[in-house]
Amino acid sequence: MDEAGILRDLRAILGDRGVVADAAGMQPYLEDWTDRFHGRALAVARPASTEEVVGVVALAREHGLGLVPQGGRTSLAAGATPDASGGNLLLSLERMNRILAIDRVGLSVAVEAGAIVDTVRDALREVGRDLPISFGASGSATIGGVAATNAGGANVLRYGMTGRFVLGLEAVLADGTVVGGVTPLHKDNAGLNWPQLLVGSEGTLGIVTRAVLKIHPLNGHVCAALLSVADVATALTLYELAVDRVGERLSAFELMSGSAVRRVETALKTASPIPVSPWMLLIEAASVSASVEADFASFVEAAMEAGLVEDGTIAASGEQAAAFWRLRESLTEAEAKTGPSAKHDVSVPIAALPEFVEAATAALAELDPGLQPNVFGHVGDGNLHFNVLGVDEATRHHVNQSVHDVVASFGGSISAEHGIGQYRLEEAYRLLPDAQLRLQERLKQALDPGGLFNPGKVFRRRPE
Ligand code: MLT
Ligand code: ZN
After folding, report:
1. Is the CB of 385 under 6 A from ligand 1?
2. Is the pLDDT of residue 34 over 90?
3. Is 451 a member of any domain?
4. Cβ–ligand 1 contact at 153 (below 6 Å)
5. Side by side, which strands form the sheet with 166-172?
6. Of all protein residues, whose CA lies closest to atom 5 belonging to ligand 1?
7. What is the largest CA-CA distance in the chain?
8. Of 72, 273, 292, 330, which residue is the least packed, with the fewest Cβ within 10 Å?
9. Residue 417's pLDDT band (boundaries 50, 70, 90)?
10. How confident is the model at residue 463 (pLDDT cuts 50, 70, 90)?
11. Which of residues 92, 109, 136 is at a domain's end?
12. Which residue, 293, 309, 332, sits at the end of a domain?
């Protein structure tokens, strides 16, 4: 491979600012967030426009290089980390970070792919609007990344996954075609809904360069409660009550095991605002109308009167609510500080959550009684992070298989919101239905026959 020639051509397309090729400069782009996957690459391409992305795609195609798109590099499935071959170019969209248009009447925002989720939300809040995509990494994650991975988060039970916000995309395909745009149409039934094909494709079918997203009114009245419950079955009863009493204003219903909360206390020195109990819930409701506050309070009161809640409190101020969320959003960091873990991002039918937790706990105990689960997740989506502590990369496959086999017995999914990336690739090929795998392969073959985009993620490599 003529590396010097490729770098020269890359600089001709992108200018010096658009290329990082020195070891120190490239280092952060080569590691995944969990520090488990470390790759190599020829260079980092940092285009500043869609035309420049087209140029990089052409160059990669010409030289048979893989192209690994990157947003905020917060994937928990190592979806944006290159392999160790060194034969890939990284494509960081970080310089394409402009907010192009906000339409507060038409309820849409158009952005470049590298715009950071929280930056977009901050700009929308200024005009009384919001893009309720909410998770711990939203200060780094980009719109292109969350659209391409169909990211989830705490507000999914109300607003759906990221794909539900996508009104349109602009993307560069493997043959260099630029498809789509950011005209803010709420309805467009003229042909296939192809943008949704790229949603969740994790950069394997096309490079998202721009997006137009549906936005929502900013909820000026937000209520949050941190409550203790005895077990997951009670959490579910409480969820049913919340749906009845709070209705569509319910915006989060998050479950945390007491041991996961204790880990935040010890690893991050962050105290829980209420005494730690076996299971804890962070419940949020939000509305443009103040009436949500009385309804939320009466829901919590009813839960206490029914004996469903052992302890807990409603946040008395925005600061207190923020402290509840800090606790919830620190769970992953506390887990990472504790050491290596086997991650799971599973979903089962919501009503099956208690039985699933019991069955998965029993399966782990059978595998090795010393294994410690670190459980938290999103009750309203039937989505749990049934992570297991103290498991390194060499042994985590056994643990993953054991948990995923239980998931499969409930008809569940091995990735509710994080995606396949490289982390779950073998498990996807072990457990996804053959018909689905074949359909995915046919789509990949049609759109990216040369295997240019994000090699080794979602799709197995084809034999040379
Ligand atoms: C969360 O729910 O906090 C995230 O999905 C992160 C995780 O699974 O660690
Ligand atoms: Zn999650």
Report:
1. yes
2. no
3. no
4. no
5. 99-103, 108-112, 207-214, 166-172, 178-180
6. 153
7. 73
8. 273
9. very high
10. low
11. 92
12. 332
